[in-house]
Amino acid sequence: MRRITEYKNRFIPGPGMLVLFFAAGAVLFPACTERIDIKLDSTYTRLVVYGEITSDSLRHTVKLTSTADYFSNTPAPVISGATVELRAGDELYLLNPDPENPGQYKPDVAFRGKPGTRYILQISNVDIDGNGETEVYEAETTMPEAVAVDSIRVIPFQTPFFNGHQVLLFAQDPGSQQFYNYKILRNGELLTDTLIEFISQSDELFNGNYLYALPVTFLNDDDPDESVKTGDFVTLEMSSIPEEYYYFISDARSEIFGSVPIFSGPPANVRSNISGDALGFFVAYSVSRASAFVFF
Amino acid sequence: MLRKILFIFLYISIPSAAVAQKVTLSGYVRDAKSGEELIGASLAVMESGSGTISNQYGFYSLSLNPGFYTIVCSYVGYAGISKPVSLGENMVFDFELQESSSTLEEVTVTAEGRNANITRLETGTAQLPIQTIRRIPAFMGEVDVIKAIQMLPGVQATSEGSSGFSVRGGTPDQNLILLDEAPVSNASHLMGFFSVFNNDAIKDVKLYKGDIPAYSGGRLSSLLEVRMKEGNNRNVEVTGGIGTISSRLTVEGPLFDKKASFLLSGRRTYADIFLPFAKDPGIRDNSLYFYDLNGKLNFTINENNRLFISAYAGKDVFGNKFASMFFGNSTFTLRWNHLFSKKLFSNFTLISSHYFYNLGTPDSEANAFTWYSSLDDQGIKGDFIYYLTPAHTFKFGISSLYHRIAPGLITAPGDDNSFSETELPENYALENGVYFSGESEFGKIFALRYGLRYSLFSNVGPATVYNYDASYRVTDSLVYSRGDFFNHYGGLEPRIAANLRINGANAIKASYSRTRQYLQMASNSTAGTPLDIWFPASPNVRPQVSDQVSAGYFRNMLDDRIETSLEVYYKKMDNSIDFADHASLLLNPYLEGELRIGKAWSYGVELYAKYTGEKFTGWISYTRSRTQRLFPEINNGVAYVAPFDKPNDISLVASYQVLPRLALSANWVYSTGIPVTFPTGRYEILGNILPVYTGRNEYRLPDYHRLDLSLTLQGKKKPGRKYYQELNLSVYNAYARKNVWTISFVQDSNNPDQTYAEMTYLFSIIPALTYNFNF
After folding, report:
1. What is the pLDDT of residues B435-451, one digit of tens each?
2. What global pTM score does this model have?
3. Integer CA distances (angstroms), B766 to B63, B161, B636, B707, B710, in order
4. ipTM computed for the complex
5. Which of A195, A247, A269 comes nearest B693 by C-beta?
C-alpha cells in the first residue's frame, strides 16, 4: 500500500486524481520490484536540527543529531553538550538537554508560541567537523497567523482499489497567500506523526475562497495505522505554516518516496533553514482544530 | 544575405547564355505497383557520371547538353531501371520501379546507385523505408518508426519502452518531428510506450542528426521527417492488421480517373475491451485506449501543379468514474507543388498542429476540477528547388510559424466548489526563417553543400513578463498588450557539408552546422509524461544555440552489399536549460524562475555496418559518446553528466529469410545504464530517513540489454492472387532481462533504522501475435 501514500496529494488535491494515478499505476505499470545491492560512497558529517514552536504547546523541543553514511543502519547519532538558545521577540530562553531523551533540548519555562513573533534559534558549542574548534549555527522563523477551521466531516469513500474515509474541511481561506499542514488524530491519538504522513498544501488553487468540503486526506481502511470506524472521534489539526517549511515538507516527501521517473526530477537535498552546512528545519506554526465523529 | 537571394532570383528568371543550350529531363520516380512517389531515389547519368536524387515529392530534374544518355534510376529495396534517352529538347519521363521481392520478370537490374551512402553529401543522416522498419521485432507487435530510429547510431531511447529519444546527447525536446511537414509536439501514446505513427500510413522516415538542412530550423539536435503515403493511384488497396493490443485498417485508391488518390487509415487499441474480464475491479472499471486517424488526398491538377492534403488526429483516453485524462495531437497540412519550369520546383505549405491534454474529475463530484493545456502552431512556408545542372542545385525559401501556448486553465464547476478558476497566462510567439542553400559537385570527386538560414523570433503580446532578482524571486512584472511584438531574437545559422569521394566505394565527409532553438519543453523527468509544458524564449530566456562539427569515413564493400561508416562529432550547446533543485514545473506562473542556464557539450564516435543480401539483411551500430553539462547554479558549479549520457550503446538488427515463406528477425540492444543521483549520507527527522546527496548524476543504473525476436509466416504469393496475408509472432525481451527502470531507497517499515535499495523494472518477456493482410 506504499503506493497509495505515494500518490496522495502528489500534486493534485482530491482522492479522484489519486484513484486515477493509482489506476494508471496498476494498468500501465504492472512493475515489479526487488532488492538490489548498491555500493555508496561516504560523505562528511553535518549537524541535523529539527525544532518546532507551536501556538498551542507549552513545551517546545529542538532535536540535534548528525548525518551518517546512507547504509549505516543504526539510530541517528545524537548531539549532546550543545548550547541551545531561543530568542522569542524580546525574550531569551535557554534550552537544556532532556536527560530522558538524548539529543533533545527543552526550555525550563513553559510558554506558548505567538503568531507574528520572530523566533531565532542559536546552537553553539558543537564541533561537528571534529577539527577541535566549535561552530555556531542559527535559524529563524516567524509564526504565521492561525486560520480557523469551521468544521470537518468524515465520510466513507469507496474506490475499486481501496475503501476508506475522506476528511472534508470547511473553512474560510484568507485572501493572502497561505500554506497549510494537516494532521489527523483518532480518539486523541496522533496518526500522522512522521513527515511522510504530513499533508501540506498551498492555497494557490483556492486563495480567498470558502473551502466547502475540501478533501484534505484519505484514511485507508486496510491500514490499521490510519483506519477509522463508526464511533471514532476524528480531529483535524490545521497548521498555518511558513512558506519555507511547506517546501521543506514537500522536498522531504519527494525524497522519501524516491524517484519515479515519470513524476520526479533529479534527486536533490531537502532545503533547510539552518545556517552553515547544517540540515533540518526550525519552524514556528499556529494550529487550529475541529473534530467530528465517524457516523458511517 | 538578401542581396544574395535577389541575385539567385535574377539568375533563375533570366536564362543565362551558359545554360541556354541545355535541355531538361524531368519527371517523377514512382513505385510501379502503387504509384507512390519514391523519395531520395538516385538518378545517375552513366555517360557523365553525374546525377541527382528525387526530392521529397519524388520529383527529379536533370539539365544536360542535347545527346544520347543512359539514365539509371535506383532505390533501396527496388530493382533499378536503366533507360536510354535521346535528349533533343525538354523531356518528361517518369521512372516506375518494381520492388525487388515482387520482381516477376527480367528487368535491367543494376547495382549502380546502391552506393548512395557514399555519393550523398549528408553526414549523420539515416533514411529508413517503412519496409525495413516492419522487419524489426516490435514491442507488443506494434511496428513503430521511433523505436526503429532508436536502433541507429547516435540515437538513444530516453527510458525503457519510451518513444522519446536523444540524438547525440540532446534532450528529447530538441528533436523536430515533422509529419508531412507539420510539427508533432508529443509523438507518444500511453505514457510513451507507443508512438503516434501508424506504420500502415507511413511511407518513409528520415533522420538528420547533425547536418540539418538549411530549410529546417527551430530545434537544436535533430530533424525527423515522417512522410505519409500518398495513396495508391492505380488500384484500390486495403491493408490491415489484427494485433495483440490494436487493430489497423487502411484503405487507399485512385480518384477522378487516377488524377487523384486518397488514403484513410485508422488504428485503435482495445486493451479496454478486455478490461471488463479482469478479476481486479480496480482494473475492470477503467477505460483505456488510444486511436490514430490518418487521411491524405492528392490531386494532380496538371503536369505542373499538384495539391496534397494531409491530416492526422490521435488521442489517448484514460479514466474511470473518479477521474479521467485525455491527450492527443492533430496536424493538418495543405501543400501545393508547382513547377515554374522543368528546372524550378516549388512547394507552398499551410501548416496547422495542435496538442492538448485535459485531466480532471467529473462535474458531478464535489470540488470537481479540470485542467486543460494546449500548444498550437500555425504556419506558412514556401520552398524552391532550382536544378541548374546535374552538378548544381539550389534551394531557397521562407517560412513563418505562429505559436500559441496555453500552459494551463483550471476550471472548477459548481457553486460550492472550493477551487477557483485559474488560468496561467498564454504565450504567443512568431518564428520566421529564410534560407538559401546549394549543392555543387566539382567533378566526380568533390561535392559541397552550403547553406545559410536566418531565423527571427518574436514574442507577441498579450503577455506578462516577470522580472526576477538574483535569488529568482519575482520583483516586478511588465504587461504587454495584444499584438505588441515586445522582444526579438535572431541570428544566422550556417550549415556546410563536404564530400570527398575517393572512388565509388570510399568517401570522406565533413560538416558544420549551427542551429537555434526558441521553444523548449519544461521537463525534468527521464520518462515522458503527457503533461508537457512548452515555453518560449523571452526577455528572461535566451535562445539555445548549438554548433556541431562532424566528419566521417564511408566505405562500401562486396559490391555495395556491405555499407560501413565511421563518424565523429563534437557538439557545443549554449544557453542550455536545466532546472533548479526541486523545481516546480506544473501550473507555475513563475516557471522562468525555476530555470537555470548553462552550457552542454557532447562528443562521440559512431560506427555502423549494414549488410543487404538476398536472404540476410541487418546492421550493427556502436556509439561511444559523452555528454556533459556545466551550470553555475547546479551541482555547485561542477560539470555533471547529462541525463541521457550513455557512453556505450550497441544496436544489432538482423533479418533472415529462412524459408521462402518464413522470415526470422532479431534485434539486440545494449547500453550503459543512465546516470543517476544516489545518496551518500542520511539523517533522520520525525522518524523518517532523509538522504544527503553530494553530487548530481555520479552513479549509474546497471547496464541495459535486451533481445527481441520475431517470426513471420508469409502467405503464398501467386501471380493473379491479390490477397496477401502474414502472421507475425514477436517476443520482446526474449531472455527476460530485468532492466532497471529506477532505483529507490526505502526505509524498512519493520525496522526504521534500516534502509535498503530497491529496483523497479517494467517488463519481463512479452510475446505478441499480429495478423496482417493486404488486398
Report:
1. 999 999 888 889 999 99
2. 0.87
3. 54, 12, 43, 11, 12
4. 0.91
5. A269
